[in-house]
Structures are given as C-alpha cells and as structure tokens.
Amino acid sequence: MSNITISLININGLVKQTINTITNSLPTSSLIFLTETWLLSPSRYPTNWFQHHNYALPVENSHRGKMGITLLTNPSFPYPIHVLPTISPYILSCKIENLTIHCLYLPPSNLTAIEALEIIQSIPLLTSSNNNHENTILCGDFNARHKELLGDQRTTPRGTAFANWIEEQGLYCWNSQLTYGMPTFIKQRNNRIETSIIDWILSTEPLANVTMTIESEIDLKSNHKPVCISFTMDRPPPSRENHPRQLWNLSKLYDDEHQQKYKNLFIEKIETVHDQIKSATNTNSIEPDINYLANQLTDCIHTSLDESVGRRTPRPPQVKWFWNEELETAFQDREQCYRRKIKATGIQQGVWNIKHKEASKQFDSLVQKRKRQAWNNFINKLSNDELSNTTATIKRIRQNRVVNPTFSDMAGPEVAANKMSQQLARTFSGNALPRVRANPPPPPIVPHPIEQC
Questions:
Q1: Is the Cβ–Cβ distance between 6 and 31 less than 8 Å?
Q2: What pLDDT, on the 0 to 100 scale, is given for residue 221?
Q3: Can you state the angle between helices 290-308 and 256-282, rounded to 10 degrees?
Q4: Which of 21, 208, 360, 401 could bridge 232 with an S-S bond, Cβ 3.0-4.6 Å?
C-alpha cells in the first residue's frame, strides 16, 4: 500500500511564472488542486509537475480569464492518473485506481444556493456498495459556510443546502471530523481579521490512516490556506516497465569520420537483409515476412548508430527557465516574515507586518523585473539568431498553442498504449480488404521505354 497526499488551494490568479511558490511550499504533496487559476487555453505552468487543466473562461477586454481549475501531479507519484472528460467549467475530475476525485470551484456571486447544489448533485457518487470498492472524494472551494457542521462563525444558505445534502448522502466531511473550527480563509480588513471555512473535503467512504492539516503559516499571496489530506490507498501502485525513448548522439554524424564509420557499419550489417530479399525474388519462393524484414532493418540502423556515435541519456525538460536564485531568496524571505508576523504579539506584530509588506513588494518587483528581462532576452534571440532557428522557434510556439487530443485509459498509460497499438494493427492488417483484388492497371503507353526516361 502507498500513502497519498492531496492538497487544495485557491490561488486567486497566481502569476503562472511563479508556480514554484506552490510546488516548493507543498513538496510532499502527491496531487495539488488549484482553483481560480484564471489560466486561459492553451497556457501551461513552467514546472516539471504533470498538469491537467479545466481552463478559465475568457473575460471581455482582458488578457486573463475567470475561474479555472488545475491538477498538478508530483513526478514521483507512482499511480497512473486518468482525467475524466467534463463539460462543466466548475469541475475537474480524475480517477486513480478505485478512487475518483472531483475538484470544484463554485463562485460566491454567480451561483445561487440552488444552482450550486444542482452542480454538486450532478456528480456521480461511486461507493463500495455499488461498484468494486469504489470511493469518491469531492474537494474544492465551495464558498459555503456552516456553523454546526464546520465550526465556522456563521451559516450561509449555500452551506445549509450542502449540509443537508451531505447528511442525505451519508458523506464524510473531513473538515468536520479532523479540522473542526480551523479556518481555510483568512483575510485582514480594516485592522480586523476575517476568517471562514469555505474549502471542503468530502468522501463517500472512510479513508485509511487519514490525517488533515490547514497550512495556516503559508502565505502564497492568497487569503486561502492550503488544505492537505493524507491517507493510505486501498491498492498498491502498479508495477511499471520502463520503455525509455532511445536517443543517440546524432550531431556526431556531421563529422565526416563518424558519418563514414556509420555508413560502413550499416553497409556491412544490411547485407544479410539484401541476401534474403534477393533469394526470395530470384527463386520465386514464398514472399518474405515484411515485418521480419522491417525489424531486421531497424536492428541494423540501431546497432550501427550504437557502434558509431553511441547513445545518450535524455536531458530533463528545461521548465524552470523563469525561476532563479534571486526569486527563491525573495520568496523565502516573504514567507519567513509572514510566519513571524502571525506568531508575534503586541508591538512586534506591527513590526513584522510592515516587514512582510515590504518583502511582498520586493518579491512582486523582482517578478516583474524578471518578466521584462525574460521577454527582452527572447526578443533579442529572435532578432539576432539565424533565420532558420527563428523560424523553428516561431513554429514551435504555434504548435504549442494547439491542444492536441490524447488517448488514455483508467488502467494506466501502458494499457492505453497497448490498446492503441492493437487498434492500429487491426486497422492496417488488411483483413478488411477484399480477397479477390482487381488486376493492376496496364502500363501507360509512352513514346520511349520507361527505362530510358
């Protein structure tokens, strides 16, 4: 069995280049659900965490969106994740083994209590009683408050509707059981601190070895505090066979010596394939197996490359091009000032409040400076680079703006790849072709023999 930690936070339109503030603050999380991302399609966060998006809705006369939900998956997470299709802008759903997770963002002003309840009621709740020991988790920014259920300071109409629905469905409310009375939203207004509990985590079945924390000492430029729940999965992670992409030092082929060595090796190794083809054509014997010949040809190419230029290991993706040591230092300084501020009392609280504001302004200033610097570097590179490189860069940018469909399976990527290969094999096997085929068309009549053309 393996433990899983799910973290949840409303980031309120975090600058996408500063996504490291989230992943660095929650490094032990398996999954991080971000609500109110304001991220428009096809934008992505510069991080090595795997990411899935229910993109934000466009805002008229603005370069940002509204709402939006993102799932970040830790690269070390051992379970395959299958993202479920949805047409609702309020929900992002995924499935991990027998666990289905639905993350919601329900805006406070655009939805009435009845409309918000209808959205959450539309989600299928799988339980252990009806389908293979299934469990369903619902989490997100519900913007609903309830005094008795959660220990909040007051109850809203949406909170009443949700509490009644939770009782009717027999759901487990982990805020109520593990963090009763602990606020997930903290805001200072007019020298007063306002708190509420609006980020909820529910489930249809009990969770094994469950713990839950509210990370109130993390700032992250959001009034919402990360909500983290940890538990043990019912099933162990599947064993994965590594099928790494094969890479060679192909740039060495520009060198005449390496290129000639590759040619000599390939000519030597391809002789056996030539002999088999010649033997089949000269003796009119049984046609050789085309798949066998293709595999032989591939082996000749691979072994020739191995012995001439050698293989190389893949480089990790350069996704942290924006984040640098200066930003990391300023971020840690801001977070430290925030922790000192909330722990201080008396006059020291005012002192650390001022220091926190200064550190926050300094971090924001460095972010803007880094954005301008990165943009200028990009423009200068396009202007001064060779035309072929500039064209390739622009082409890559245009391609990245297209969201390509992908095929996945609940059983994991290996099962999806096998199903796709089987489908392609059936499609191109030739079984659908008629057994009796038409004769080929006669050769065209030309003034000269084709061999002399």
A1: yes
A2: 85
A3: 160
A4: 208
Query: Quick one: tokens of 106?
Result: 């329900």
What is the rounded CA–CA span in Å between residue 122 and residue 140? 16
3-state secondary structure of 20: helix
Say if residue 42 is preceded by a cis peptide, omega within 30 of 0. yes
Phi, psi torsion values for 124, nearest 5 degrees: -70, 130
How confident is the model over 113-129, as pLDDT tens digits?
999 999 999 998 877 66
Looking at the structure, tell me whether residues 293 and 172 fall in a common domain.
no
Instruction: Provide the residue range defining the domain that includes 357.
Output: 325-398
- Please give the Cα distance from 186 to 204 (Å, whole number): 28
Supply the pLDDT for residue 241.
60
Kindly report the length of the chain.
Answer: 453
Host H or E run for residue 8: strand 3-10
Q: Tell me what the mean pLDDT of segment 390-397 comes to.
A: 87
Neighbours of 394 (CB within 10 A): 11
> What's the number of domains the chain is made of?
3
Q: 1 to each of 156, 204, 231, 238, 275, how far by Cα in Å?
A: 40, 20, 10, 10, 55
One DSSP character per residue, 237-265 reads PPP----PPP-B-GGGGGSHHHHHHHHHH
Regarding pTM above 0.70, the answer is: yes
